[in-house]
Amino acid sequence: MGQRIPLAWKQLAFERMKLVAAVAGVMVSVLLMLVQLGILQSVYHSATAFHRGVRADLVVISPLSTNLTGLQPFSTRTLHRALGHAGVERVAEIHSGIVEFKNPWNGDVRRIACYGLDPLDDLVELEGLAEHRRELLVADTFLFDRNSKRSFGPIARTLAETKRPVRVEVSRREAHAIGTTALGVSFGVDGNLVTDRANFLRLLPNRDPHLIELGLIRLKPGSDPTQVRDDLAALFGSQVEILTLPQFIDWEIAYWNRNAPVGFVFTMGTIVGFFIGFIVVYQILFTEVTNHLPQFATMKAMGFGDPFLLGIVMRQGLILALLGFFPGLLLAIVVYGVMRYVTQIPIEMTTARAVGIFVLTLLMCLLSGAVTVRKLRDADPADVF
User: Fold this and answer.
1) Is 105 among the domain residues?
2) Is there a single domain that holds both residue 224 and residue 94?
């Protein structure tokens, strides 16, 4: 067994330019798959950042709502009717809207998402909220999303350096950033503000205070979320839609897959990357087998069976997978860093993704070898002797 691996390696290494081309092909394939899946997961992660901060059991939305940036209002009275259910402990109201944010450094005005909630309520737990609960009750204060695009100005950096509120203009009203949170950008959202409900209504004075975009429901211990959801759905009818927290997250992801088919696009990109690697490895292995067909025929004449010869080709596929994966992984990490800096999308390499692509790379190269070995059956000793 120990002598078989060098044979596979020596055949590959004999023509070094072909070996380099094969490794480069695998590396590009790995890079493409990692980047495509990385972007896809980061888009989902950013789009559901607020959802993951919710600590409620049920979420109430208007049936006209499409996603978090397309929330439609409904009456607070509808939400408070849920308190009549024996399984409901309390509810919370959340406003959501778009406001105009003026960059205090260059004067540019850009639209930014804004959430108004009760900072003393623990049904929403976002980064930085616990440290500034009381401060957000002060008029015209807010938390700035440090993952917002840089076009809003270095708000987060200034807060970190000065330890003092940053004065800005929001919806033509003077306001102060007193801290930061972390939500992130996504399609259609360049940044976020989090503030008190009263401050939200100051920024959007035309909003009806009795209309909200999100309702959160905390259930009493021992209550079944699915059962309570069904009971409330029957009570409210078509007025609102009741979702469990996992359904709320899935609802957001389904919107992006349906209306901005990111899932299809980036999954297809991953598949294309897989087949690029498959074709490159197949061509290299096929050439190796074709060029060494007389040698394989000689080995057959010496008594080596097909399993031994097939093992050589399969090991060559394994070698190419190992040589191409790790450079591709390192390059993908570098690309992630560049994309994170340029786009502000929180794209990170995860162990699960790296392991998954490693398995796909092994499968890709071994499958190429499996297709190539059919050529070995043409190795007839009679053609040599």
Assistant:
1) yes
2) yes
In this prediction the pTM is 0.80
- In the chain, which ranges are E strands? 58-61, 74-75, 88-102, 109-117, 141-145, 166-170, 173-181, 192-196, 211-212, 214-219, 241-244
What does the pLDDT look like over 79-119, one tens digit per residue?
999 999 999 999 999 999 999 999 999 999 999 999 999 99
The predicted structure's pLDDT at residue 180: 95
How do strand 141-145 and strand 58-61 relate by DSSP bridges? unpaired
- Tell me the residue type at 231: D
Distance (Å, whole) CA 126 – CA 54? 8
Are 273 and 361 within one domain?
yes
Read off the pLDDT of residues 181-217 as tens digits, 9 standing for 90 and up.
Answer: 999 887 778 899 999 999 999 999 999 999 999 999 9
Same domain, 71 and 35: no
In a domain, 255, yes or no: no
Q: What is the pLDDT of residue 378?
A: 60
Comparing CA positions, the residue from 330, 332, 319, 329 lying closest to residue 355 is 329
Same domain, 101 and 24: no
Give the pLDDT band of residue 3 (cuts 50, 70, 90).
very low
Q: Residue count of the chain, please give it.
A: 385
User: Which of these three, 239, 274, 297, is where a domain ends?
Assistant: 239
The predicted structure's pLDDT at residue 282: 84
* 95 and 166 share one domain: yes
Helix-helix angle 293-301:262-291, to 10 degrees:
60
Do 80 and 197 fall into the same domain?
yes
Same-domain status, 80 and 178: yes
Q: Is residue 55 part of a domain?
A: no
Average of per-residue pLDDT values in the chain: 88
Based on the fold, state whether residues 318 and 266 are members of the same structural domain: yes
Kindly state the helix (H) or strand (E) to which residue 117 belongs, with its residue range: strand 109-117
For the segment 40-87, what is each residue's pLDDT rounded down to a tens digit? 888 888 889 999 999 999 999 999 999 998 999 999 999 999 999 999
Counting the structural domains of the chain, the total is 2
Q: Which residue segment(s) compose the domain that 143 sits in?
A: 63-239
| Residue 285 is assigned to a structural domain of this protein | yes
> DSSP labels for 214-243?
EEEEEEPTT--HHHHHHHHHHHHTTS-EEE
Q: Cα–Cα–Cα angle for 175, 181, 183, nearest 5°?
A: 115
In Å, the largest CA–CA distance within the chain is: 94
Asked if residue 42 lies in contact with residue 348, where contact means CB atoms within 8 angstroms, the answer is yes
